Amino acid sequence: MLSLDFFITSLIVVLIPGTGVVFTISTGLTAGKRASLFASLGCTAGIVPHLLASVLGLSAILHTSALAFQGLKFAGVAYLLYLAYATWRDRSAFAIADVSNTMSAGRLVLRACLLNVLNPKLTIFFLAFLPQFIISNGPAPSLQMLTLSSVFMLMTFAVFVIYGLLANVFRTAVIESPGVQNWLRRGFAATFLALGLNLAFAQR
Questions:
Q1: Distances (CA, A) of 2 to 93, 121, 135, 152
Q2: Given pLDDT bands bounded at 50, 70 and 90, which one contains residue 1?
Q3: Distance (Å, whole) CA 137 – CA 46
Q4: Which residues constitute the domain of residue 169?
Q5: What is the count of structural domains for the chain?
Q6: Is 66 contained in some domain?
Q7: Is position 5 within any domain?
Q8: Whose CA, among 1, 34, 38, 199, lies 20 to 30 Å from 108?
Q9: How does pLDDT run across 180-194, given as a tens digit for each residue?
């Protein structure tokens, strides 16, 4: 169950840049270290519904129901496009300010959480990913799924925190350069747009 293969595969999956990574890095750059921690927490919390869906077998319904998949998918697309627009328009993001003065911790966690909650590909991923490491003659499969899920979430949180802290290291240099700020703002907006379009054309 908790094999070396599981840890290596999970680490690779977590390290691959996706919506959560992009959001955490952008938050670390624009709002600082504390805000990036909340972003990491939110992105990790957003995994919970997908893990529960896998444990309860709901992911199979999402996999076979075109309507359910498309509905969740386009909600995710709309949210990513909103983030792209908001990032593009926000001119105050790089101001030196504590997250409590710009966006409440709860709101930041919620925004990060929605990124993963509204991504149906994540549920399908866990449907295909976790069962590979279930031991047929081991404890109850649901218990094994919960154990694997918990470890995966801890790895996700740890890696995202590191991403956010590394981004924060470069924050001062970014704040001192308006040109770099504009480039990053447009880059993050374009990335969210690209991720939204990629999700829009995703298949079950």
A1: 41, 24, 10, 10
A2: low
A3: 31
A4: 19-89+98-200
A5: 1
A6: yes
A7: no
A8: 199
A9: 777 877 887 888 888
Alpha-carbon span 134 to 139, nearest angstrom? 9
Sign of CA dihedral 160, 168, 25, 16: negative
* Integer Cα distance of 125 and 136 in angstroms: 20
Tell me the C-alpha distance between 122 and 125, whole Å: 5
Q: What is the pTM of this model?
A: 0.74
Instruction: Flag whether 10 is in a domain.
Output: no
Helices 33-45 and 19-31: angle between axes, nearest 10 degrees: 160
Q: Are 59 and 123 in contact (CB under 8 A)?
A: yes
Residue 179 lies in a domain: yes
